Every structure is written in structure tokens, then in C-alpha cells.
Amino acid sequence: MRLRASLRALHYERRILGVLALALPLLIVAGFDGFAGLLGLGRTAHSVLGNVLTAGLETGLPLAAGLSVSAMMAQDSALELQLSLPTAYRTTVQRRFALILLAAALVGAAATVGLTLALPWSLAKPLGAGQLLWLAPTLWFCGAGAVLGLLLRSRAASGAVLGGIWVAELAAHGYFAATGWARPWFLFATLYAPEADFWLANRVELIAIALALLAGAWLYLRNPEWRFHGEDA
Amino acid sequence: MNQASVLLGAMRYEFRMQIRRRAVWVVLAFLGGMVFLLWYGIASDYLYGFYTNKGEAGAHVYVPPSLRTAVLYWALLMAMFLPVGVGLVLADRLARDRQSRVDEIFATVPGALGARLFGKYLGGALATLMPVAVLYAAGLGYMLTQRAEPGELPLALAAFAALVLPGSLFVAGWSIALPALLKVPLYQILFVGYWFWAGLLTDRAGVPTVAGTVLNASGRWASNGLFQFMPLAIRPGTGVAFALGNIALIVVLGLLTIVAAWRYLLWQRARQ
Lengths: 233, 272
Description:
The complex is a heterodimer of chains A (about 230) and B (about 270).
Chain A: H1 2-41, H2 46-74, H3 79-82, H4 89-118, H5 127-152, H6 155-171, H7 173-178, H8 189-192, H9 199-220
Helix pairs in contact in A: 1-2, 1-4, 2-4, 2-5, 2-6, 4-5, 5-6, 5-9
Chain B: H1 3-19, H2 22-43, E1 50-52, E2 61-63, H3 67-90, H4 93-99, H5 102-108, H6 113-146, H7 153-177, H8 184-200, H9 220-227, H10 240-271
Antiparallel strand pairs in B: 1-2
Helix pairs in contact in B: 1-6, 2-3, 2-6, 3-6, 3-7, 3-8, 6-7, 6-10, 7-10, 9-10
């Protein structure tokens, strides 16, 4: 009975989130894969195609999930109503977060398995480690998106910070790979330094930072009335 | 009602709304801080002069201090990264009208949609450029405290006008206009991806890109063509006319997207 009620609640949250928030990771990864397919028709080198496919999973998917999470955290048009309900607002947000993460994870896992089986040369890591390729940056962007959405209370502003970090890390990838203190923050290590000895440590550190950010968001939501202060529209 | 007064009114209110958003200042200050760190790592040595043996071929060579080089690096790095923030904080302006239902009220009052949209573009872009200008001036102020050569101030102003402004106006146009068609999160991710792909990606990546064409809006054509500044140049030896053409093209493209959004919204209203 409780399970059925939980599933029904998830079903309603899915409808409130809308199709785009859940389909964005799929759209973006499909876009990268389609682009790689077009390049493949032109006999582009496997190394370049592999980079485009890896970029879809390591850069596109995480940003898509992060933007969806920050938009969900920043705005809720029925917030006052939420706070009057027996279900804690935190629980509702957890459900929505779980749905977005699940949608991204399904795309990431399916694409990694599919690419490893169909095009074994495409991803720089074997199947097991390959899951960390998308998982670590996705969790990081979701954690950062959650905290930014809550603190800035504006989907445009939180999206701008996420986008700025994304572009800066891509453009200054050489600096991140070469500098000791920057390595735990290097989100795209598989794309630019797949053979580096710090790759696994980098993935674990990204996940640890993500968990710390998510714990921060969770603690913030213990005081849901803080969400009221100056929603920036 | 006079269209000019509608335009000015819309511009004034959009300017006030945007400049009072704390998030705009916080976000651009964060991105400006990132750019400053990048500049500090790459170009701060030009304030004092340094020895280098770049390429490790032979003896160390002394590079004399050059405020001009430091300033141009600052302007170019700002032009490459700050438009990401400018575009993204403007992306919700049109969607906000729909969300708060003021678009329905606007439809009932006199005053053409085009004038309001253009006013929104001018006001929003001007307000968002204020934090950018303050950050640029702050970086410049730091450089002048380290090397007091106020004779380079006109160069700094010209670099801001030629490198930072055109790219920001280009993205402001796109970010006001395209959310008429696309949902904000989808636009945001497409815009960020486009900026990297069409502005910052190098040919070495092997991926086809428009970054090497006149459509590149990241200031890299202008820095080379107008200031003979070599670092990060797309094609060394770019002429002045080509650089001016690049600036004119990207500013006009920004304006054209506003016109396109205006026609689209008119068409959409006619169908209702």
C-alpha cells in the first residue's frame, strides 16, 4: 500500500517536472551521438569520433542534469502550498531530484554499455570504469546545481554559474590536468587526460565533493521557509 | 502611443529590473573572479617583466614589462568568458513575462510588441553590461596600481569597446530572442555549447567548427586585427577591415535575432 502511494507520488512529481527536465539529458547525448554519426559518414578519424562521443557523456549529460536540477530547486510556483502540506517540502524535492538523476543515469548507463559493445574503440575506459566517466561529473553538476539553485533562487543565475564553470574547465583543461590543487575539481579528465594516474582519484574526489554539496542542500531544506526570502524572478 | 516612448519606457524598466537583481551581480562577479585568476596565471608577469626560455631553446630571455600586453590579455579573456554569463542571466527575461502573465496584460495596452522587445533588449543588455564594465575597470585599476601608466587608458577603453562589447551585444540579442522559441534550460545548454564550439574550440580538436570563420564572436579576430595582439589569434595577420567586419556582423546578427523573435511572436499572436 505504501509502495503504491510512493509510486503515485513519484508519478505526480514526474508530471510536475515536465517532459523537458527529464528528457534534456537524452536530447543532449543524442545530439552529440548524432553529430558523431554525421562526422563518421565523412570518414573522420576514430580518435575524433571517440572524443565527441566521450564529450557527450562527460560534458553534455552532466550539464543537462545540473541545469534541470538547478531550475527545479530555484523555482516552485506552489511553494506556499507545499509548506502547508503534511508531506515535508524536503521529501518532495528529494523525489524530484531522484527522478532527474534517474533519467540522467539511465541515459548515461545505457549509452556507455551500448557504445562499449557496438563501438569498442569509442570510449577510453572499459565498461566498469566507464560508468565513472559520466557518473562523477553528473553527480557533481547535480550537487552544484542544487546548492546554486537554493542560494541564488534564479534558474538563469544558477545556470550561468554552471555554464561558466563548464566553459572555463573545457577551455583551461591543460591547467586543470597539470596543477595539483585543481585536479580534484577537473570535471573532464576522461576527455583530456584518460591515461593520467590521477584519473580514478579524480573520479572519487568529484563524487565526494558532490555528496558534500548534496548534504549542504539537504540541510538547507530542513528550513524550507528560507526558500521564501527574495525569490529572484 | 508614440513608439519611441514605448521603447524608452520598456528600456528604462528593463534596465532597472535587471540591474537590481542581486544574482546578476553575484554571478558576473564570480565569473569575473575566474577570469581574473586565469589572467593572473597567464599575464600578470607582464606588469613587472620576467625571464623566459620558452621552448627551452637556449638562454633565458628578458621580457620587459608591458602594461599594454597585460591590458589586452585582460580584455581578450573577458571577451572570451564573460559573454557566457551575460547571455545566461538574460535568458529568462522573455520567459518571465509569460510566467508572471504580464505578456497578456501587455497585449491589451497600446504600444507595439516590437518597440517593447527592442526596449527589453537595450535595457537588459545595458544593465547586464554594468557589472561587466565595473569588473573590467577593477582589473584595470589593479594593473594601474602595479604599473602607473595612465597613458594606456585610451587603449583599455578601445579594447573594451572592440572586444568585450560586441560579443556581449551578440549574446544579449540571442538570449532575449531565442527563449521565445525554446524552453529556458534547453536554450541555456545549447547556448553554452554553442559558445564553446563556435568561439573557443581550436582546429586541433579535429571537430568541424565555425570558430575559424568570421562568425567567431569571442574577440579573437578584433584583438589581432585592431591591436596586432598575437596570443590566441585565430589567423595571425588579420586585417583591420576584416576585424571591423567581424564586429559589425556579430552586432547586426544580435539585432536580427530580435527582429526574428518579434516576427515570430506576431505570427504566434495572430494564430491565437
